[in-house]
Design goal:
By secondary structure, the chain is an all-alpha fold. The chain contains 12 helices and no strands.
Length: 271
């Protein structure tokens, strides 16, 4: 009798957790829908992350015929602009959306609704992630049509997974900026961070064109680390252990910073 009662209680508990998970996912998809509708109302918020990396590819990569006609070099060039596209989307989407939302009365109201925070986070991740995927499409098409870049389906899939994981430092950096700064200051800081990481991280120019001191310094930046890890995933070779360790450290540091700033903001508003 006791065993049957315990089993029944465990089953009910599992059912509750399953229903709760399904509810969070359903609410997360609902948040995704309205986040996307809100974003689409400002067309430049969608056009910018998609067009800017493609224009960078056209101006910085395509004129270099020796690079685009070399299969290995062209593949690396496409990869580094894809890392740039993901970084731009994460920094601007999370940084500006969060900082802007904090200045409106709507955000504190939404926090009072009887919905778990996980649903709102899922909504942000899904909506920003969808625009990030769209930003990769023009680069993939330009690389296939106008360069000698080459990769099979398995390499592309593995590269996409590594690109997703190595983009986490940019996501947490955007969240940290959003909770640390007001909207106008966040715009300036994000632009400085974006161009600094892009140029010094070898996303506009190949690192082999860097002087020795800059090449050494850039290996400790999350943008350079993401570039090297995705190139390893697509082209193979020896695993870049230094870049892998650096990416993990950046992820943990920026995650800790983002959580601390979120709690500081929450404490200021609700104490």
């Amino acid at each position: 009798m006791t065993t049957a009662t315990t089993t029944s209680a465990a089953a009910r508990t599992s059912a509750v957790y399953a229903a709760s998970g399904a509810s969070v996912l359903r609410l997360g998809l609902l948040h995704t829908k309205y986040n996307l509708l809100e974003t689409v109302r400002v067309p430049m918020a969608v056009i910018g992350p998609i067009v800017f990396p493609a224009l960078s590819f056209a101006f910085f990569i395509l004129p270099q015929r020796a690079l685009v006609d070399d299969p290995a070099g062209a593949t690396q060039a496409v990869i580094q602009l894809m890392v740039f596209a993901v970084m731009v989307n994460a920094l601007f989407a999370y940084g500006l959306n969060i900082s802007q939302a904090r200045e409106t009365p709507w955000e504190p109201y939404v926090r009072t609704l009887p919905a778990p925070a996980g649903a709102r986070i899922l909504g942000q991740v899904f909506s920003v992630g969808l625009i990030g995927i769209l930003s990769l499409v023009p680069l993939f098409a330009m690389g296939a049509l106008f360069t000698a870049a080459t990769a099979d389906a398995g390499q592309v899939l593995f590269g996409a997974v590594i690109l997703l994981l190595s983009s986490l430092p940019f996501v947490f950096a955007g969240i940290a900026i959003g909770y640390a700064l007001p909207f106008k200051a966040a715009i300036a800081v994000i632009q400085i961070v974006m161009f600094g990481l892009a140029f010094a991280g070898g996303l506009f120019l190949p690192p082999m064109m860097f002087p020795d001191w800059l090449d050494t310094a850039s290996r400790f930046l999350p943008s350079r680390e993401a570039r090297e890890l995705v190139i390893w995933a697509v082209q193979g070779g020896e695993l870049p252990l230094l870049e892998l360790a650096g990416s993990i450290v950046w992820t943990l540091l920026l995650l800790t910073l983002a959580l601390a700033l979120y709690r500081r903001d929450e404490g200021r508003r609700y104490r």
